[in-house]
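#dry-run=false #mode=assembly
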Amino acid sequence: MTATRPDTTGHFQSHYIPNTTDEQAEMLAALGIVSIDQLFIDIPDEYRNPTLELPAPLSELEIQRELGGMAAKNRPLGSGPSFLGAGSYDHFIPSIIKPLITRGEFITAYTPYQAEASQGTLQVIYEFQTLICNLYGMEVANAGMYDGATSLAEAVLMACRVAKREKVALVDTVSPAYSAVIHTYCQSQDIAVETVSPSNVVLDDETACLVLQYPNYFGNIEDMQNLIDVAHAQGALAVVSTDPTAMGMFQTPGHYGADIVTGDGQPLGIPSSFGGPFVGLFATKQEYIRQMPSRLSGRTVDKNGKTGYVLTLQTREQHIRRERATSNICTNEALYALASTIYLAAMGKQGLRQVAELCYHKAHYAAAKIGELPGYSLPIDGPFFQEFVVQCPSAPADINKKLMEQNILGGLDVSERVPNGMLLCVTEMSSRDDINALVAALSEFK
Amino acid sequence: MRQGGNRQTEKLLLERSVPGRVGTVLPDLDVPAQPLPNRALLRDDLPLPEVSEPEVVQYFTGLSQLNFSIDTHFYPLGSCTMKYNPKINDEIAFLPGFAGIHPMQPSEQSQGALELLYKLQGFLGEITGLPEVGLSTLAGAHGELGGMLMIRAHHLANDDKDRTTVAIPDSAHGTNPASAAMAGFNVVELASDKDGNVDLEALREVAGPNLAGVMITLPSTLGLFDTNIVEVCRIVHEAGGLVYGDGANMNALLGRVKLGDLGFDVIHLNLHKTFSTPHGGGGPGAGPVCTTNQLAPYLAAPVITETGGGYQLSTPEKSIGKLSGFHGNFGVLVRAYTYIRTLGDAGILSISGNAVLNANYMMKALRGIYHLPYDRTCMHEAVFSADLQKERGSSGLEIAKRLLDYGFHAPTMYFPLIVHEALMIEPTESETKETIDLFIQALIDIDREVTENSELVNNAPHTTPVARLDEARAARQPDLRWQPEAAD
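#status=ok
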């Protein structure tokens, strides 16, 4: 312990900070002063050097023990069968992603404003933009947003700018968390947010956009073509938050004519990590490009004619346009855009389709089995992907407690929306044995 | 270092594709196949790459080597605090008990994570003197939006509907006015005085019944501690406004002064600057919001609370609402917690002390060679002007690009906007004196090159993977994704 404490002169030699007392003395002498404290004389005396009640420093060995102990108090998804989704999904993550994204050249680089010194990051962003466009069937994608919720909220603000209207129709099958973030972003912008049912969408010519989720919060595939056509008939934009994994088999939102497509990149190679960091996906049509938020990497040439990449169309952004920027977004989630790009490269054309199909078949197998149990039913009709609601014979919260006694993480309690409803998610991570264990455990409630 | 064969990075993923190659093998379906939905709901093509695993690893490794980074180069980018990012922080964040937990799992199954967040709230509250902390905002600018929405909510709760103006110094980062605008405010610019402080006369002119508040970066983006700061807070408070603090430059002040003591009402911190979490080529960051007891009820949801039974997620009484999908950038918060525990009380003081010492040492050595528009003791960074070099034919941009040839990342250029030909240099505490001395020598050498051979400087960089890029073409003919027809 003593090695991590300050010495008798008050000097503390951290392993992250090279200067020794001798070097400090040499540098202070060059400045003509004798103590570091003299550098802080601009701070008024009565406020300078306040008491600071923080714990003492720890060695790395102690850190590993303490933090390891805190981590051990949590139940990781991999420690037993898990059927919780609702915006954060447990998918297989190829082993190559972690060593690549933690390469110092990627993880300790800054935002690529100095293009000549950042070609790696800029080319990755260009790849990311390309693959997200292909995934969603859209013409242009940006370098990423914070997460799926904020990406959708920024899409709503953008739709209002494009349509020059200030009313938003939010379908009630959009995630409540996403819906809450949209309300927070719109509260100061004089934008009215109305909630509508997907079975009865009536818009008027004041509506800027119709906001959908695909698959929706309950896992179902809405009648996308019809809903998007309804929006367009009133001159409104269609804004669709889309699960990227579903794009391994389902038709793209671009195919149906969506104007802005957002999503959370978490399912693409990013651990659930208690909800972040993730990366927001954001794609649109070419014609709306100048209203887009966040960074764009563009391909160009250097003065010798060699291909290279730069951040472009920056006059949309806060560091140029200040209060008239399309968004205040600056630092976002580049490292996880990289993780998603590596994921899509590693999965590729065949792999992503296979992942989607594994999720689809396993989820439908589980739904069919649970639907046959006495006291259980599947209250929502229609096609779904990897999530579905089951109506339980008793309160889902009680059932989840009992499931956890068998180390099974159950689904999300959605009884506020569906009586005794539980939203279950089954991905490729669940084996047949895991699913059968869930079905057997559920069968004990009647 | 040249790469040969398939390890060259020029070809993009879709150009490398060979039909039939796979990069991952997945398990076979172990349940009976289920009926597929209507064919019309399914897509036909999936235009993703077809490449093998070695190709993916080699391609991305090759791309990484085109970057400058803290681990490979000194990165004195002003206002970005590009300090060493400890590897243990990454290791801890990747522990399965942290990286593998679901945000919606029952709180009994995530007590360790909630305990960490609760204690981090306490540490950040203690460091800033603003005891109430929310961790859910995902970057600096996101924290600004949260803080400004809280100021708005406070005035509306007092039925003070006319407080719609926010004053922001002309030296501020662009996110400040952009965030204020997103929070629904009108922005007025505040002039700086000849010493780089907020001009008190200009502030008094706007300090009236319409003033919602001010957004102040301390130290300022000029790298200076505003000696009028207590008076600034007093004037704003007397006029009924609130003081927002942009904590981007907190590296200078850790343990030296608490912003809450000076009169700030709400601030954000950039954990990816001050608290060493890696910048990742443009994120992830985290922008926690720290505030007074008075404004705490408005914090974005969730915050972490503790009762006898344990830790839980809570929504403050008059919360502005949710600003992110879940609870914040947890993996970043874990890293910052690990950093604060490692450094402890003594280490926190050592950070600011050495960061400010290094910056002043560098500034002194270059004084007289590069113009110093504000010739005062600086904080963690020094802002020079390349006016003297410009007179001899090389701009700040050209000097910055020439530094790349010396193996140093460029400083921040042309910011703050009020300094002509600005070069903003932040060495941080984690660089050695030898590195700083070599960097000083490089800037002295480049100054000589400007006189002797300005063409050499003006055509720099000469040694990077690409030369100066045609940005006008990129903006005029946007090429933002690879398409087969555009391949040739």
